Amino acid sequence: MPAFDLPPAELERHRPDIGEPADFDAFWETTLKEASAEGDPLVSSRPVENGLRLTETWDVTFRGFAGDPVRAWFSLPRRPGSTAGTAEGMPAVVEYAGYGRGRGLPHERLTWVNAGYAHLLMDNRGQGDQYGCGGDTPDPHAAAPGGPGPAVRGLLAPRDYHYRRLITDAVRAVAAVRALPGVDPSRVVAVGNSQGGGLALAVAGLVPDLAAALVTAPLLCGIPRALDLADTGPYGEITAYLSVHRGAEEAARRTLSYVEGVSFARRAHAPAHFGVGLRDTVCPPSGAYAAFNRYADLTGAEPAKELHAYPFNGHEGGDAVHVRRQLDWLHSLLES
């Protein structure tokens, strides 16, 4: 697939007006306040056998949106001679999974724990059936009008939308990991690709004391343009829905404006590391550039940030090459 978005020189200065709703901040302040009122984030943490000798894992449940139980895997590197769960003061990576994927099995995602970080992998509520090894978190609030896919559940009203719930879960996951043993609460990092990248970016905009955000091929960035360009994946689900419900466009665009990644990016404080494939037809690269170029616009902060573009790659971006860049960057950031 040839490059189909803006030329690289235009991407580098792409700073679109995203039509942010006037009550964006109030909407999220109220949403997160309601979630916090449900009680302490951490519900339970139970050690599990993972078949690994160098990693120990816990099955974690925390309170997400509306106090709903959200599942996660929490893993720590097992150090020679240590007793299970005794590591102290370790930086933590909270990882968010891609669209349609659940948390899977505890031995699937080992990069961050092998790099020496505590690792929390959040389950995606109401997802997990498209690829991977499944999920364990239902979405009990999915009855609002909309299509069957997560991207269109509750699309006609901001308070009903699936991503209002999932983003709230993502923020609460940070609070949960800070309550777990072995974690330095001042060094918590949000990481994700695709949908997970969109969630990591939202967390960067909603959690002011996050240590860093690593965002790759983010969904929910530059949404208006993405709907014009992409006809596969989550954006394709939205356009397919609107092709049937021809009078719903205005309501849908209003709802989507409350989960726009560029709006979250403008409110971020944390150092940020971005990755993007310039031939990405699932999450068009102009969205990632828009978020990167407007990152920290409203905060007065000047955090360290960098973006790595892969001209001949699509949604896979830099793949393992980019992960190595993430590892080097994060080690340098947290150990300096």
Task: Walk me through the structure.
The chain is an alpha/beta fold. The protein has a single domain (41-335), classed as 3-Layer(aba) Sandwich (Rossmann fold). 33% of the residues lie in helices and 19% in strands. It contains eleven helices and nine strands. It has helices at residues 8-11, 24-36, 111-114, 162-178, 195-206, 223-229, 233-244, 249-257, 261-266, 285-293, 319-335; strands at residues 42-48, 55-63, 69-77, 90-96, 118-122, 183-193, 212-216, 272-277, 305-310. It has a nine-stranded mixed β-sheet with strand order 1-2-3-5-4-6-7-8-9, with helices on both faces. Helix 3 (111-114) links the parallel strand 4 and strand 5. Helix 2 (24-36) packs across helix 4 (162-178) and helix 4 packs across helix 5 (195-206). The radius of gyration is 19 Å and the shape is globular. The model is unreliable at 81-86 (pLDDT under 50). One of its GO terms (molecular function) is cephalosporin-C deacetylase activity. Keywords: Hydrolase. Pfam families: AXE1.
